Every structure is written in C-alpha cells, then in structure tokens.
C-alpha cells in the first residue's frame, strides 16, 4: 500500500470481484482509496484526490472505474485497469449559502452528498432534519452514487427512480476537470458558486439526464445534489395473500379503486410490492404483499428490549435460510421458508428507517431485474411461471428464488431501465452460486421476447445485454447519451470504460 498524497492510498495488482462474488475476478492494476481531509470542510481534498487518480490513469494510459459497495451483480464496477474506491467520500456537504443557489428557498431542501455515502446514511441525515428522500431501493446499504448510476429504484409507485432525485452532478472528468452538471430548465447553483469552487458549470437537460445513469462512463462522480421532501412516515403492512385473479388484475392495472382489499387502508398507497413464491401460486398464502401508506412524520421511541424497527425479513433473508439446501429441494421447502421469514408485520416509522440497510447475512444473493409497462405485468408473469415449470420439467433446474413485482413512474434518465410510465419492475432475487441460473435467465429472456413483452434490463444486475439489444432498447436516447458522453470526454472517451461497458455497447 502506497500513500500517494494525503488521503490517497494506492495498491497494485488487486483481484476484484463484486460483493456477491458472482462476477469473475479480474486483477486491477491499481486500486486507489480516496478520502477527504480530517475536517468537515476538507472535502476539497477528496476532490483533489479524485483529480489525481484521473491524471494518474491518463498518464499511465489506463482505464478508470469508480466503485461503491460493489453490490451490482453485473460486472459494471470491476476492471483490469485502475479502480477507485469512493466509500470514504461519504459526507453530506453543507456548503451552500442562500446566495449560492439560483432559488435561495431551495437551501436545505436540496442537499449536496458525496457519491460514496450509503443511501441509509443519507436517510439518517435527512431524518434529523425532518426531511426525506422520495424514494429508495429495498435496502439502503448501497452508495447513492452507485445506486443512481445503474438506475436503481424502489416501489414507491408514484415516484420516479433514485436517479431522478438528482438535480446536479459534480463530475471529475478528463484531465481532472471539475464539472458541475445541472438542468438548464431547472438551474440550481449560481455561476458564482461554481466559479468559487473551480467548477465548470454546464447547464444542459440532456447531459444531466445522461449523467445520472452513466454506469460510471462519464467520469468519477464526486457528489450529487439530491432533491428532498418534507419528512414522512410509512404505515407499513406486510401480509400473506393468495395469487388471486383480483390481485393479478391490480398488479397489471394499479387500479386501487377496483375493490381489491389492501391491508391498512384504502385508496392509492405510497408503496406497493408483491413477492411471489413461484412454487406456491395456488396456495392461499403464496404471496407476500407489502403496502405502505404515507403518514405525518413522527420518529417512534426505540422499541423495548432491543427489538428492531425493521418490518420483517426481506427477500434476501429468506434466501439465507435456503442457502444450505440442495437446489432440488427448493420447490418443496420454499413455501415453508416463506412462511417463517415473512410473518405479517405492521410498522409505523419514518421512511428513513422502514427499510433495512445491509445485505442479507449468511449467503450471497444474486438477481436479475426487468422493467416493463404495467399493462404487461400479467403477460410477463405467465411467461415467467411457465418457464419456471418448464425448467424443472425439461432441464431439472429449480429456480432458487422468488419473483418480486415493484412499481415506479418513468425515469427521465436517458438509459434508465424504468422507461415506462408507470413501470413495473420484476426482480428475480435468488441465491448466487447455483449452477444453471444463468441459463435459466437466458431462456426466460428469450421467452419474454417471443411473447412480445417489451422490457428493459437493470444495468447493475444479471442482464446478458449486447450492443444490438441496448441500441434497440434505447434508440435515439442512446444516441443522445453517447453524444453527451463525447461532449464531456472528447478524445478521452476510452478513459472511463471497462470490458462490460464495451460489451454492452455503451463505450465500444
Ligand atoms: C442486497 C441488494 C439489494 C438490492 N436492491 C436493489 C433494489 O431494491 N433496487 C434496485 O434497483 N437495485 C437493487 N440492487 C442493485 C444495486 O442497487 C445496484 O447494483 C447499485 O449499483 C449498487 O450500488 P453500489 O454502490 O454497490 O455500486 P457499484 O456496484 O459499486 O457500482 C455501480 C456502477 O457505478 C459505478 N460507480 C460507482 N460509484 C461511482 C463513482 N463515484 N463515480 C463513477 N462511477 C461510479 C461503477 O463503476 C459501476 O459501473 C440491490 C443489490 C443488492 C446486492
């Protein structure tokens, strides 16, 4: 380990994989760990360190990747070039005065957060201020940078995904150039502030919409400006239900007035999520239904006896229990485990603490995830259940996981997966390391294509994307994304890429 300069450590020839270990290990020529200075206002040292890493990579003629928590299941974060770990750049930067913002009334409602901050930590900070993110994923352990750059989302049905909360991006680009990117239609910072911080201010709606889901290909993200809302609670209800025709109708219409009885209230909830045990679709309790209602902000007292406020086991915790089982035993045991791990729960707590923080313990998760128009949700479910059956019958493969339906509004990010308004995202959370899972996903994607289901794939999950597919998925938006990338990187376009981004046609 070498100390390059204050707050910048470097190690050579480090094997790199992702958190789950499903991505084949590659040896990064250098891995940098970047820190701020010790004082709160020393965040500029973190910027200098990122700039130094960029110029090192340029001088060495190497590619450069940022890495957050490496929660992505695709190889988007690994590289055989130079890698920079941004986890220590995790501060909320209290840098603005009213005169630094175009609209001074946004002070406090838009917060500047370093890209390595974990979503859960951002939530905690905001909760203290009685403010909140509008949306997050199912867990809060990933970095805000990594979550946004891959287009991650949750199931807050009337909200756009995580990247859509970003109003400005502080990017370190070619030659260590410090760029502040924001929308021309909604300027955030003043020219004076950008100038004072030595940032080149670029106001361009398309560039912002490209940079927020860049899969790390526009440069190193130092910080993002997040738009927040007044703090609120969620009245969280998780119950067991059958996969009835009425529920299936709701899943493909989001028509909450059609009479399906939701737990805890009536009308349109804030959060709606359906997790299906694919081996118990005829059972009275084969579905975990989670519904959350928005309520006024109130932090509850700590639970007695050291209990947890978390509303219950998430999908991954269920799979932790499955990890010790032979794949052939999965179908007969999945329902029992679902029953044990998904007891009905009700919790009323701030958004910030309703969802768990960390990865499930005791096993390595894996997932693929697709987004599609809500109207096609049931058509997709039919294909999925048929392929799970066919895989057992024809390939002796029991898909070792669940099928989760979550919802959002369309993203404005050019290549964000949630292209539909509204979008349903279907996730396949399962165990890593089970032979045959990749082939299963390939067969499933083919079946969905054959059934004319119009879907996009998560950049940070198992996806088997290729340039042709990405081009047809995003069309003119991809062309704009590439043009905006070229406008930022110019002749240095080969700097911020890796084998994955080349293979999917983003950077080759
Ligand atoms: C347990 C678990 C639960 C999950 N739940 C959800 C969910 O609910 N919804 C959902 O949509 N996804 C979910 N995912 C997927 C996950 O949110 C995404 O893959 C996300 O990218 C992970 O964030 P990260 O910090 O680990 O990023 P990484 O995997 O480290 O990186 C992601 C990408 O961003 C780039 N990058 C990261 N930081 C920077 C930076 N500062 N500058 C430049 N480039 C950078 C990397 O190069 C890479 O291309 C889950 C994954 C796990 C393991």
Brief descriptors of the model:
8-stranded antiparallel sheet; 21 strands; binds flavin-adenine dinucleotide; 508 residues; alpha+beta; Uridine Diphospho-n-acetylenolpyruvylglucosamine Reductase, domain 3; 28% helix; 2 domains; Vanillyl-alcohol Oxidase, Chain A, domain 3; 6-stranded mixed sheet
Number of helices: 13
- Based on CA inertia axes, which overall geometry fits? globular
Q: Give the spatial strand order of the biggest sheet.
A: 17-14-16-15-19-20-18-21
Count of domains:
2
Mean pLDDT: 92
Distinct ligands: flavin-adenine dinucleotide
At CATH level 2, the architecture of the largest domain is: 2-Layer Sandwich
Our estimate of the beta-strand percent is: 15-25%
- The residue ranges in which pLDDT falls below 50 over 5 or more consecutive positions are 306-313
Query: What is the level 1 CATH name of the largest domain?
Result: Alpha Beta
What is the gyration radius calculated from CA atoms? 22 Å
CATH fold field value of the largest domain: Uridine Diphospho-n-acetylenolpyruvylglucosamine Reductase, domain 3
Distance between the termini: 32 Å
Report on the biggest sheet.
8 strands, antiparallel
């Amino acid at each position: 380990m070498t100390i390059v300069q204050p707050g910048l450590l470097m190690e050579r020839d480090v094997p790199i994989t992702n958190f789950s270990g499903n991505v084949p290990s590659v040896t990064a020529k250098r891995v940098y760990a970047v820190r701020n200075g010790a004082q709160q206002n020393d965040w500029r040292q973190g910027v200098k360190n990122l700039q130094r890493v960029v110029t090192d990579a340029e001088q060495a003629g190497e590619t450069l990747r940022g890495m957050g928590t490496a929660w992505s299941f695709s190889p988007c974060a690994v590289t055989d070039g130079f890698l920079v770990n941004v986890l220590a750049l995790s501060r909320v930067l209290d840098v603005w005065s009213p005169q630094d913002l175009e609209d001074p009334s946004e002070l406090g409602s838009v917060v500047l957060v370093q890209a390595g901050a974990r979503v859960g930590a951002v939530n905690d900070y905001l909760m203290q201020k009685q403010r909140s993110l509008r949306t997050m994923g199912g867990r809060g352990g990933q970095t805000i940078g990594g979550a946004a750059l891959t287009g991650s989302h949750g199931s807050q049905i009337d909200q756009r995904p995580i990247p859509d909360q970003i109003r400005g991006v502080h990017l370190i680009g070619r030659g260590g150039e410090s760029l502040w990117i924001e929308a021309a239609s909604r300027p955030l910072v003043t020219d004076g502030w950008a100038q004072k911080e030595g940032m080149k201010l670029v106001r361009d709606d398309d560039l912002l919409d490209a940079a927020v889901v860049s899969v790390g290909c526009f440069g190193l993200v130092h910080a993002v400006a997040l738009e927040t809302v007044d703090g609120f609670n969620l009245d969280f209800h998780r119950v067991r239900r059958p996969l009835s025709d009425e529920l299936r109708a709701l899943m493909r219409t989001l028509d909450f007035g059609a009479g399906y009885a939701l737990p805890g209230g009536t009308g349109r909830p804030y959060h709606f999520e359906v997790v299906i045990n694919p081996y118990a679709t005829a059972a009275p309790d084969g579905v975990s239904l989670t519904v959350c209602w928005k309520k006024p902000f109130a932090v509850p007292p700590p639970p007695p006896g050291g209990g947890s406020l978390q509303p219950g086991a998430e999908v991954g915790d269920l799979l932790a229990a499955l990890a010790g089982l032979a794949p052939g035993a999965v179908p007969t045991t999945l329902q029992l485990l679902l029953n044990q791990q998904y007891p009905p729960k009700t919790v009323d707590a701030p958004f910030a603490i309703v969802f768990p923080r960390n990865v499930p313990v005791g096993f390595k998760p894996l997932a693929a995830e697709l987004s599609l128009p809500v109207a096609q949700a049931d058509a997709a479910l039919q294909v999925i259940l048929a392929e799970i059956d066919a895989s057992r019958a024809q390939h002796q493969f029991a898909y070792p996981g669940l099928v989760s339906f979550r919802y959002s509004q369309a993203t404005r990010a050019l290549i964000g997966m949630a292209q539909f308004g509204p979008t349903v995202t279907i996730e396949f959370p399962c165990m890593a390391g089970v032979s045959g899972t990749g082939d299963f996903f390939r067969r499933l994607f083919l079946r969905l294509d054959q059934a004319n289901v119009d879907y996009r794939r998560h950049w940070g999950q198992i996806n088997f994307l290729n340039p042709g597919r990405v081009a047809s998925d995003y069309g003119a938006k991809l062309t704009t994304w590439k043009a905006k990338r070229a406008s930022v990187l110019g002749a240095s376009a080969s700097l911020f890429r890796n084998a994955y981004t080349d293979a999917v046609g983003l950077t080759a």
